[in-house]
Design goal:
Blueprint: E1 4-5, E2 18-21, H1 23-26, E3 30-31, E4 34-39, E5 42-45, H2 57-61, H3 69-75, H4 79-86, E6 90-94, H5 107-122, H6 130-154, H7 158-183, H8 191-204, H9 210-222, H10 244-251, H11 262-289, H12 293-339, H13 355-361, E7 365-366, H14 370-376, H15 382-387, H16 396-410, E8 416-417, H17 419-443
Parallel strand pairs: 2-6, 7-8
Antiparallel strand pairs: 1-2, 3-4, 4-5, 5-6
Helix pairs in contact: 5-16, 6-7, 7-8, 7-12, 8-12, 10-17, 11-12, 11-17
Length: about 450
């Protein structure tokens, strides 16, 4: 466990004794009731504080027993400010003979990535353009107004309703991309302003919960495509993903569904039902169960605004049907965009890679164009977004060459593909996993 020593402060008075720890000792503290982590060689006991973590207790638990320096830098726009919360949790430092990285990670790669981040900071790539986000919010509100004007002037006929549904679907999807920006603290310099506007966009413009999104999405960013840590690959036994899970299910003779046909029933289950059914149930139950009353109030304001606007034209049942149809269309858009970057990539158990390697292994990019940028909310730059989640999305293209160069230097595969191929790869990946399951189920 370590050595102790005293250090003198500037006043010449001795400070509290510092304890030194080895990685072997630190890695033992990765349990639900016992969590240590390392940031810049300092060791912190976050066991009791984890439940008060603004990003949720799970995301901080996923880094327990590890060097969390890069994750800490990635998620906080003002690390110096956050240090005041860490100070009471400090229990010691890495022993002088211990490497800064755990589990034999490539220390030079890690240092080069941190140098790249510093370069991006010096290039002001973490500074948002207020005009970009103002116009983006403006075009969402304009679509909401246009939808109301259409039904006001042309009535609630079938053609008008179909066009109206497409406009509302577009505004809802684009509001989803915008709330993503504020949720990642990538717009304002102060976290508090990002949080306030995030609640407005996801709550009042979409009827969802900011806290639900934060607690779920940050886990995905911390450990993308890692079973038991990334909620986005928890498929509730409906799908098997990657190369190892299908074989594991097959060997155990688990057959909740005919997984060799999952690339076919994907069209009937995932895109149509994710938002209108699964997310809606999860959001409402989470807000009530976790007592996110402020989020619930924002969500109620959305539904009040929506029904006040459309009940005069469609009635209660008609307005509810229209909303369900819009969610149905939005769900298709959302699923294809968000899954094309991840499902075809490596999905496996924890391998304790460095930040760069773990993020790039789980993500891929889609070729840039004005349409692709708008259609995906700049998630076509998924690699850059995962490496730098607080970077404003309009700057991804600027840091992209630096990222590609660093990946090439260390032989880390940087994958980019056309939009259409990315969609096809989702189905191909599901079919491959299904075939692996069937082979293991029948023959192993």
């Amino acid at each position: 466990m370590g050595k102790g020593g005293e250090q003198g402060g500037e006043s010449g008075e001795p400070e509290a004794q510092i304890r030194f720890y080895t990685w072997e000792e630190i890695q033992k503290h990765n349990l639900r009731t016992d969590k240590w982590l390392v940031i810049e060689r300092k060791v912190y006991n976050v066991t009791k504080w984890a439940n008060r973590h603004p990003g949720g207790h799970r995301v901080i638990s996923h880094c327990a027993g590890e060097d969390a320096t890069d994750a800490f830098q990635a998620f906080h726009i003002n690390p110096t400010l956050v240090q005041k919360f860490l100070k009471p949790l400090l229990i010691g430092e890495l022993a002088p003979g211990e490497p800064s990285q755990d589990r034999d990670k490539n220390s030079q790669l890690v240092e080069d990535f941190r140098t790249l981040r510093k370069t991006a900071e010096d290039m002001n790539l973490f500074r948002a353009n207020p005009l970009f986000f103002s116009l983006y919010l403006g075009h969402i509100i304009a679509m909401e107004v246009l939808a109301w004007l259409m039904v006001s002037y042309f009535g609630a006929g079938w053609i008008t309703t179909l066009i109206l549904a497409c406009i509302l679907t577009t505004s809802q999807t684009q509001a989803g991309w915008l709330q993503h920006d504020f949720g990642h603290l990538s717009v304002f310099k102060k976290s508090s302003w990002n949080h306030i506007v995030h609640k407005f966009v996801i709550g009042h413009l979409k009827g969802a919960s900011a806290n639900w999104w934060n607690h779920r999405h940050f886990q995905h960013h911390a450990k993308p495509n890692i079973f038991k840590k990334d909620p986005d690959v928890n498929m509730l036994h409906i799908f098997v993903l990657g190369d190892t899970q299908p074989v594991e299910y097959g060997k155990k003779k688990l057959k909740y569904l005919p997984y060799n046909h999952q690339h076919e029933y994907f069209f009937l289950i995932f895109p149509p039902l994710l938002i209108p059914v699964y997310f809606q149930i999860q959001i409402i139950s989470t807000m009530i169960r976790r007592r996110f009353w402020a989020d619930l109030a924002w969500a109620i304001s959305y539904y009040m605004r929506y029904f006040i606007t459309y009940i005069p034209f469609y009635g209660v049942l008609g307005s509810l049907s229209l909303l369900t149809f819009v969610r149905f269309l939005e769900s298709h858009w959302f699923v294809w965009v968000t899954q094309m970057n991840h499902i075809p990539m490596e999905i496996d158990c924890e391998k304790h890679r460095d930040w760069l390697s773990s993020q790039v292994a789980a993500t891929c990019n889609i070729e840039q164009s004005f349409f692709n940028d708008w259609f995906t909310g700049h998630l076509n730059f998924q690699i850059e977004h995962h490496l730098f989640p607080t970077m404003p999305r309009h700057n991804f293209w600027k840091v992209k060459p630096l990222v590609k160069s660093l990946c090439a230097k260390y032989g880390v595969q940087y994958e980019e593909k056309p939009l259409g191929k990315a969609f096809v790869d989702i189905i191909g990946s599901l079919k491959k996993s299904g075939d692996l399951w069937l082979d293991a189920y029948l023959h192993k």
